[in-house]
Amino acid sequence: MSPTTVKPKTTTKTKVKLERPPLYKVILLNDDYTPREFVVSVLKAVFRMGAETASRVMLTAHQKGACVIAVYTRDVAETKAKEATELGKAKGYPLFFTTEKEE
Ligand code: NFA
What we know:
alpha+beta, CATH 3.30.1390.10, 3-stranded antiparallel β-sheet, 3 helices, 42% helix, rod-shaped
């Protein structure tokens, strides 16, 4: 009987590390000139808020100076902040949205 060669089975496992993308806050800043209703309409249009949430967020920014609106990946946060700021600019308002990396 001929000897048999046993080939050991080997497997290689590559572990892929999946990291979550860092998140960015979009922040609404208060100013003295943009009408409240306009701020609410921008929050509804750009950030898909309902009337009540939009009013609450607008009032918080009005009273405290700023309010975190939502959290997105960097691209989405920056695009939405820019879009919302542009809507105010188009009407001559100083309305401003900024972004900040979440810790
Ligand atoms: N402070 C603005 C006003 O009294 C309203 C406002 C709220 C503007 C939140 C910007 C952000 N008309």
